[in-house]
Design goal:
With 930 residues, the chain is mainly alpha-helical. Among the domains are: 156 residues, Tetratricopeptide repeat domain (Serine Threonine Protein Phosphatase 5, Tetratricopeptide repeat), CATH 1.25.40; 103 residues, Serine Threonine Protein Phosphatase 5, Tetratricopeptide repeat. Helices cover 75% and strands 0% of the residues. It is built from 44 helices and no strands. Helix 11 packs antiparallel against helix 12, helix 40 runs antiparallel to helix 41 and helix 41 runs antiparallel to helix 42. The longest helix is centred in the C-terminal third of the chain and has 30 residues. It is rod-shaped and about 250 Å long. The relative contact order is 0.02.
Length: 930
């Protein structure tokens, strides 16, 4: 078949028609990229020509020229415009691109003008707006989009057109109109590719208008879509594609700005309270905080991070937020606030706190490590501060954090060191009880470390300090613990320079607490080491000695005191005191022997005190007790020797008086009454108790009297009367003894003196008068009357008779008066004696008259008359005598029948023999009157 020229001329037109047909078969909706620096995407319905776009355009132009009224003309115009627009987008030169875009604009406008009611013009308007934009005419692009959304509300390009409108309005800062456009996109374009960007730009639009709450609503809708996984978890930013991630980052910045403008932390909290929390809430708080950090608003940043922690204390991000608080204050150089934040971190996220409930440490090892570091640094910080300030509060904080560290991280390699530092802080703060416990824990509850021995010894120092502030049972309990600690120290670190010293102090403490046997055991660990320092050995021996002494093991005590003395400088106060204890130990052995009845052994020990520990204060007592033992053994001579030696050796000793008493007893037992009397006289001299002194004085006088030491006895009785006038009865008795002694010596004058003293004492006795006093007074008066009687009898009726008779008669009256007064005493034997003597005096006077010398000048009757006269004178006296004798005899019915009554009876038998002469008659008489 031959092809003609006309056919060849129509080939471009036919190709264009075929292209159009192909395009119509595959037409589908397309999209346009961002007007802001985005490449143009040709609608997928537009066929991408395999051939050169320029060639395709030429074909379309040829078609249009060939068939101006073809039904395909509108589509050809649109396709040609599309190719022009594509060429504009691919042109490397700006001018060429603008020309291509202008050509596209002309084609689109001619299409709209030629076919104003044509279906599909929404697409034409869509691309026209794009062409205007590429041609550098954004306002015309905007007006074209306005027309599209106005005239084609159901167009598939409507949503994108609204979005493009919003973008342009945003650029020209017509934010109110832009907001409407973006909201239109969101209203009709839910699920479209423009939804996220519309939300993003709506947020910014509201932000630009100062409507932060509305802007936040848009941003959070966007963030909810992109940052929440289908299962409701927060999506990590790193998991979002880069382009979208940049949009999210920018949205987050806008959110940060919004919240900062609304008040920061309070605005955040208020928003989430109203709108509900978000899984990615931590990200929001972080970004707001970071914004503040960029602005160097460090306190505000810290406040944001703190707010999150307060709001979500158990969230996994909470501890990290708190660390950001710390970092914010660090960057801002707020040390006190940073310190507080670190404390809050350690408190809020304590391993025993709510945060870790239901969590394993391994789940958040990073925070466990951060907590450990923080707690350690807090403890060291407060400890260092306390060492500078010496404030109790600082120490309390240091102690608290050390405790927390050990509580939470007990197995860490540095736990022992931390425990040691805790103990140091306790000690420095005066918490000695706690310090002791912590030092012990450091020393003995960890594997051996560099502070082990140091801590063990420090515990002992802490215990010593603690004891100073304790009393009673609590002090004892801690002292017991201190002892155990010392023993542990010495046992664990035997080569430590302080080990033996610790043992010595432990022994001392045991002794002080009364645990004497353990004290001896511990002290023996020191005394048993010859290489131990002399001072420690001396102390250990001293403790052993004291403990043994208190346990009653006086033999061990004596030995130990000897060892201690050997290590003391002679003549020192300490050495003298130790010798006193040595003497006491020996003395106590004597007491023990005496207690079981081993008197010989006891005496030997007592005497050994002075031999081994001469000059000690107990020697005197020991000598005294030795004498007492000898007395008990009945070894009077040896006892007297020891007592006399005591008297000479210890003249001012308080036992001198007791020695005197014992000497008195010894001499008394030995029958040496004179020596005994001398001792009793000494007793009377020093005895302060009147009764005892009086008794001793009396016994001295009695012993002198019994020993025949008359002069000493007289002196003793006189001393007694002078010193002890009361009780009167004893004093009168002493006077009576003086009377007897003087009478025995023939000294009637001095005897008469004491007789009168007795009578006078009785007369003035008053209520003190006793029967004995009355009796002795009566006896004394009787003796005095007897002396008067002797004086009466000494006068003989001889020449000159008249004068002698007068004298004798006077004496007679005196004697009768003396004897008569005796009846007043009411003493029967004295009364009968006085009665009898009165009768005798009367009888004697009558007889004396009869026996008187006769006048020499009388003789014969005169003499006879004189004799008769004498008889007449003498007879009444005899009658009076008989009457008185009979009066005496009449006392027999009263129960009185003593020697004087019998003497009166005898005299009556002589005077009245008929009546009283025979013995049987007298007995009958006596029986009758009874």
């Amino acid at each position: 078949m031959k092809i003609g020229g006309s056919f060849l001329a129509q080939l471009p037109v036919m190709a264009a028609v075929l292209l159009l047909a192909a395009c119509s078969l595959h037409d589908r909706s397309g999209t346009i990229g961002s007007l802001e620096q985005e490449s143009v995407d040709i609608d997928p319905q537009d066929v991408r020509l395999e051939a050169d776009e320029q060639r395709a355009a030429e074909l379309y132009r040829s078609f249009l020229e060939a068939g101006p009224r073809s039904e395909l003309r509108p589509e050809a115009l649109r396709r040609l415009a599309g190719l022009q627009l594509e060429l504009a987008g691919t042109s490397a030169e700006t001018a060429a691109s603008a020309e291509e875009a202008a050509a596209a604009v002309e084609l689109y406008e001619s299409l709209l003008e030629a076919y104003p009611g044509r279906a599909g013009n929404d697409r034409v308007l869509y691309h026209l707006a794009q062409a205007y934009d590429q041609a550098g005419e954004p306002d015309k692009a905007l007006s074209t989009l306005d027309r599209l959304v106005r005239e084609w509300p159901e167009s598939p390009f409507w949503v994108e057109a609204q979005f493009r409108r919003g973008e342009r309005l945003f650029v020209v800062q017509d934010f109110a109109a832009a907001e409407i456009a973006y909201r239109a996109v969101l209203e009709k374009g839910a699920g479209s590719v423009f939804e996220d960007r519309a939300l993003y730009k709506l947020g910014w639009t509201e932000f630009k208008r100062g409507r932060y709450e509305a802007g936040l609503e848009a941003f959070f809708r966007l963030l909810d879509r992109r940052l929440i996984t289908p299962d409701g978890q927060a999506r990590r930013l790193e998991a979002i594609e880069r382009a979208d991630r940049e949009m999210i980052e920018d949205a987050l910045r806008a959110v940060s700005l919004s919240f900062s403008y609304q008040g920061g932390a309070q605005a955040l909290a208020a928003y989430f309270d109203r709108r509900g929390g978000r899984p990615y809430e931590a990200l929001i708080y972080n970004r707001v905080g970071e914004f503040y950090l960029e602005q160097e608003r460090f306190s505000d940043a810290a406040g944001i991070f703190e707010a999150y922690v307060a709001r979500h204390p158990r969230d996994r991000q909470a501890p990290r937020m708190q660390l950001r608080v710390v970092e914010a204050y660090r960057k801002g150089r707020f040390p006190s606030l940073m310190l507080r934040a670190r404390q809050e971190f350690a408190q809020r996220f304590a391993l025993d706190g709510p945060y870790w409930q239901g969590r394993e440490r391994a789940e958040d090892a990073e925070m466990v490590s951060a907590l450990r570091k923080t707690v350690r640094e807090l403890a060291r910080y407060f400890h260092a501060s306390a060492q500078q300030s010496r404030k109790a509060d600082d120490y309390a904080q240091a102690i608290r954090w050390y405790h927390r560290y050990l509580q939470w991280f007990p197995k860490e390699a540095d736990a022992a060191e931390i425990n040691f530092l805790l103990a140091e802080a306790q000690f420095e703060n005066g918490n000695y009880l706690e310090a002791a416990e912590d030092y012990e824990r450091t020393a003995y509850e960890y594997p051996r470390h560099r502070h082990s021995a140091e801590a063990g010894y420090a515990a002992l120092l802490a215990y010593e300090k603690a004891e100073e502030s304790l009393e009673g049972g609590l002090q004892r309990a801690w002292r017991e613990r201190a002892v155990d600690s010392a023993l542990s120290f010495a046992g664990t670190f035997p080569d430590h320079p302080q080990a033996l010293g610790a043992l010595t102090r432990a022994a001392q403490s045991l002794f002080d607490m009364g645990d004497l046997r353990r004290a001896i055991e511990v002290a023996r660990q020191v005394t048993g080491k010859p290489a131990a320092p002399s001072a420690l050995q001396r102390t250990a021996w001293t403790i052993t000695a004291h403990a043994a002494f208190d346990l009653g093991d006086y033999e061990l005590a004596e030995s130990a005191y000897g060892e201690a003395i050997d290590r003391l400088e002679p003549g020192t106060a300490t050495e003298r005191a130790m010798r006193e204890r040595l003497a006491a130990a020996i003395y106590k052995q004597g007491e023990q022997a005496r207690g079981v009845g081993a008197l010989e052994e006891a005496v030997a020990h007592f005497l050994r005190v002075g031999q081994r520990a001469p000059g000690t204060s107990i020697v005197a007592v020991a000598e005294y007790d030795a004498a007492a033992g000898l007395i008990q053994l009945g070894r009077w001579t040896r006892a007297a020797e020891v007592l006399e030696r005591f008297r000479k050796a210890f003249p001012a000793h308080r036992l001198q008086h007791e020695v005197t008493r014992k000497l008195a007893a010894v001499y008394l037992e030995a029958g040496q009454k004179a020596r005994a009397a001398a001792e009793f006289a000494r007793i009377a001299g020093f005895e302060k108790e009147t009764g005892a002194a009086r008794q001793a004085a009396w016994q001295a006088a009695e012993l002198y009297r019994e020993a025949g030491e008359v002069r000493s006895a007289i002196l003793a009785y006189k001393h007694y009367v002078k010193r002890f006038p009361q009780p009167l009865e004893a004093a009168v008795e002493a006077r009576w003894q003086l009377v007897q002694l003087y009478l025995g010596e023939g000294d009637r004058k001095r005897a008469r003196h004491w007789l009168r003293e007795i009578v006078r004492a009785d007369a003035t006795a008053g209520r003190a008068r006793s029967d004995r006093i009355r009796y002795l007074a009566a006896r004394s008066a009787l003796e005095l009357a007897g002396m008067e009687l002797a004086g009466y009898k000494s006068i003989r009726l001889v020449e000159p008779l008249k004068r002698n008779l007068k004298r004798k008669k006077k004496r007679l009256e005196a004697v009768i008066a003396a004897y008569t007064r005796l009846a007043d005493y009411g003493v029967a034997e004295v009364t009968t004696a006085a009665t009898h003597q009165i009768a005798e005096v009367y009888r004697d006077f009558g007889q004396a008259l009869m026996e008187s010398e006769r006048p020499r000048n009388l003789s014969g009757d005169a003499l006879e008359q004189y004799e008769i006269m004498l008889e007449e004178q003498a007879y009444p006296f005899e009658e009076k005598a008989i009457e008185i004798f009979e009066a005496n005899v009449r006392r027999i019915p009263e129960g009185t029948y003593d020697k004087w009554v019998r003497a009166s009876l005898k005299r009556l038998a002589e005077l009245l023999p008929v009546r009283y002469g025979k013995e049987e008659r007298v007995e009958t008489f006596v029986a009758g009157i009874r």
